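In response to reviewer comment 3 from the previous cycle, which asked for concrete evidence that the modeling workflow produces usable outputs, we include below a single protein chain processed end to end. The sequence was submitted unchanged, and the resulting structure tokens are shown without manual editing.
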Amino acid sequence: MPSIFIVDSNSLFRRLIVQYLNIADFYNILTFTDADECLKYIDLQPDIVVTELYYGENKISGIGLLRRIKILSPKTKVIFLSSSRDLEGAIQSIRLGAVDFIVKSKLALDKLILRIKQLTSFNQEIQRANTLNITIVASLVVLIVIFISLIFLYGH
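The workflow returned the following structure tokens.
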């Protein structure tokens, strides 16, 4: 089950996002009001952080949060879910490594759920492939050991 951080200054919208995620069977969720609060828990290495672009004056921006996440938790995927239609901010967020920038709208939460499902299913496929590779390598090692043992046993 992926761990998801929601960072949004609007408490009503945070609760709405959590409800949507719960309906989609995502339950490992922590919510925060701003980037500073989120960064206090970034050592938990969340799989996904959903953040807005701006939190208000004298606050770390979503871009600032993204930059710090890339340093402190480089495997964490960041999705922007913002009421801002700031094209420059959207482009900058993607250039800095965000996996998506979704503008808040009627369909925004559906897009968010779809994107999270895509990211988590991709990660599950990678884990399955890694498990399969480990199994194949282990089987090859066993075969090599058997082959070498047969050579020593019958080769002399």
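The chain has a mean pLDDT of 87. We consider this sufficient to address the reviewer's concern, and the full set will be provided in the supplementary archive.
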